[in-house]
Amino acid sequence: MTPTTVIDLGRQALELTLLVSAPLFIAALVTGLIISIFQAATQINEQTLSFVPKLIATFITLVLAGPWMITMLTEFIRRLFESIPSMIG
């Protein structure tokens, strides 16, 4: 295994990690922004008011995007396992 192969494999893994986690981060970010605007408008400063909706939005996003995320991860792992003989030899 050459250093170039290791670097390329690490780059692919990081790209996949960012791609798979992006929907969850975006859902939490949008929910947090909406809740922050609501809190600023009503002057309610309750920590659980921002935490619970983010948790619910993240869970709903995970349910909706979960099959796509699992498919992306299993395809990457399948390609990785299939390329083991060529990486070693």
Describe this structure in words.
The protein has 89 residues and is mainly alpha-helical. It has one domain (8-88). The protein is 91% helix and 0% strand. The chain has helices spanning 3-42, 47-82, 84-88. Helix 1 (3-42) runs antiparallel to helix 2. The model has no long low-confidence stretch (mean pLDDT 92).
Structural class by sheet pairing and helices = mainly alpha
Cα distance, first to last residue? 8 Å
H/E topology pattern: HHH
The percent range for strand residues is under 5%
Keywords:
89 residues; mainly alpha; 91% helix
Summarize the structure.
The chain is mainly alpha-helical and 89 residues long.
Write the layout of secondary structure elements.
Layout: H1 3-42, H2 47-82, H3 84-88
Membrane topology: Multi-pass membrane protein
Transmembrane segments: 16-39, 51-70
Subcellular location: Cell membrane; Bacterial flagellum basal body
